[in-house]
């Protein structure tokens, strides 16, 4: 590895390739737009780093979305100029900021909607809402069909400054429920019941997140769905391939790369010596005995990336075997060219480490 080029950098660092992020956003936007679907680019997974969020704007997302108001405010102050969509059902305590900084929000509670109306009057503003239906994933959203219709009628008829922009759903988060023609079809038919009552078309029928992309790829997305809110599928593009079996070869997976430095290389037994009790995080681990193997210890740990099994070594032959708060242990016995002390190893990642690493102020972010 190229040590010299980085001699003035202290590791670990997070390398972010802005061009690759841009190209990933562009692919997903094109895939969706071709089927009449707008994309809300979800920036919460990388803590809404402004430079990265800009790629979402430049590559054609219609909305910039986050579940946290502080991220939306940060981007607004950075000068990013797109409609902002607030993803998490708003707290009472953030309604003032919501009305000031976000144009659209997802909602499910009448009392909250009434408060948004009051705040809009105070600020002399309007605000668009997408009412959320729970189709079985059991996180947010109205579960009962009559209740969502009542809620829609309430917004339409009684809240002057709150515009009933559309309806939406979220799947694949808590209940890990798969979006299908059936459940999203139900979303569309509820939308049509509401439309017949309000005598106009809804602007938005938002059919979920990354986990809804397979329906688009297969050409099976119900026709009335015209919006998705996508984060993971754009950023690390690992889930659709690994968990769903889709060919995502055209998507870059090395948009975010963790680089860490080796501080020790030793031959050691693979099974710990002595009585196994609980590890640094209170769980009782089990170990396979594979005899003596060469291992490298890297100066990066759970405090930085959260979960080591969600990291993917870039170098062939490197295998992650464990971690503690400040260390990552890898097996390097099978490497063709064995890494040396002081070398830098790179790791691709799934969503959770991206979340932790981008949030961590002690990890420098290096843009390429
Ligand atoms: C996080 C979030 C998304 C985006 O999910 P991905 O799996 O990253 O695409 C969409 N909608 C809501 C409500 C969310 O909270």
Automatic annotation (TrEMBL):
Keywords annotated in UniProt: Isomerase, Pyridoxal phosphate
Alanine racemase N-terminal domain location: 16-233
Domain of life: Bacteria
Necessary cofactors: pyridoxal 5'-phosphate
Single GO molecular function: alanine racemase activity
Gene3D superfamilies in alphabetical order: Alanine racemase
Protein name: Alanine racemase
Organism the protein comes from: Clostridium estertheticum subsp. estertheticum
Taxonomic lineage of the native organism: Bacteria, Bacillati, Bacillota, Clostridia, Eubacteriales
